[in-house]
Amino acid sequence: RATATMGEATEPSPQAPLAVLSKVELRVSCKHLLDRDTLNKSDPCVLLLMQSQGQWMEVDRSEVIKSNLNPVFAKIFTVDYYFEEVQKLRFEVYDSHGHAGVGTHDDDFLGGMECTVGQIVAQKRVTKPLFLKYGKFAGKSTITVISEEISGNNGYVELAFRAKKLDDKDLFSKSDPFLEIYRIDDDRSEQLVYRTEVVKNNLSPIWEPFKVSLNSLCSCEEKRKLRCVVWDYDSRGKHDFIGEFFTTFEEMQKAMGENKVQWDCMNPKYKIKKRNYKNSGVVVLLDLKIHRVYSFLDYIMGGCQIHFTVAIDFTASNGDPRNSCSLHYINPYQPNEYLKALVAVGEICQDYDSDKKFSALGFGARIPPKYEVSHDFAINFNPDNDECEGIQGVVESYQSCLPKIQLYGPTNVAPIISKVARVAADEERTKEASVRTPRQWAPGWAETQYAHATFVRASYLPMSIIIVGVGNADFTDMQILDGDDGILRSPKGEPVLRDIVQFVPFREFKNVS
After folding, report:
1. N or C: more exposed end of the chain, with fewer CB within 10 A?
2. If DSSP codes are grouped into helix, strand and coil, which group holds residue 318?
């Protein structure tokens, strides 16, 4: 349920531009890394850094691959992609030293590479040389980064594998098996999707369940071929091949519920050489769970309705409506700031509301007949039915309401949020919950602590809140409620369950098409 609240605003604070956001997955591999270790090969790890306000900040890091100068990292880096921004990335490769972790000393540094997210996205596959300090080449070392956009209909899948009676590759103990899953792309290249942990000294290992995105596993195509390989781990990086099998996500789905799916783990060389060769073990998919991640469009196309509620700030700080400087000034020739904002948001939301009836409420004014202050009144003055016919009905109710009320205060929208929350809670109980959207527009937040607690409670319900700041006031309190700079909490420290608040300074968008 959308509740919109409108309120006035001192000096504008800089806001980020309206951005088109996508998420991008990055996969990293290296070749011909420098060998920093005397006895073994380097144990590489990749750090991903992103430039923010001129400073390099670490975003994430890969796993450490033991004794390998040509590593293919299983770690998938996920970054936000903004088309209109130059997003600088830096990949740094280090030789890790066991328990000491990844050092940042010069002697552990195997090379770095800088590029932008845009370059990787445009080329899909970027291979560049690694550089040491002062622009010196790190020998013949190269790094390759492959990008893939996460599609909107993406979900993820949880898989649990085990194996039985694998071939024993070790002389004095049993094999130490791990499993790798590769996706085979249209150009027949293979992308590493996941690498399990190593189960020591066990020919019938049970690997830990793991989650991968459907996009990563099969590009959201159920029939795309997957190659699964079982290896015997070697601490020097020379893993012994046990066997492989091919499958699809479509076939894997037979493992849902009580069912299990199994494959013969085959070694092609043994199949040719050994007459009675059956397999090198069996791999079993014990369980598969699909977790769909639905987009906003999925909900709308699935029949979700948005009930739109407007809450308008009628506090005295808006200025006398008879004065042309007031944000509530009724100009016979053009709409005031409140009306412009109301129509701008309302015209979008009304397309998703089947009955086109909008609850329109006000707060912060003295209202007839007793002229007592109210923080929750219907602007059509009908307490039994606060709904207006379409956005035009809200506009007409607002215009007829203004001359009848006295702007007062304080700014307190919590009672209206609580009222909408009660309706949302009732709908949730009757299994008829639609999305409720409150909207808000206010300058100072007199009862900030009370408001925080109200918003935290509301985050557990099917409702969202758009706060539209009207005018040029100081909107610091509104931005705190937005929660983009940190998690919004109640006075007792309880965090919001979901980020349900979006603050919009109308002055920055009113001239946009």
Report:
1. C
2. helix
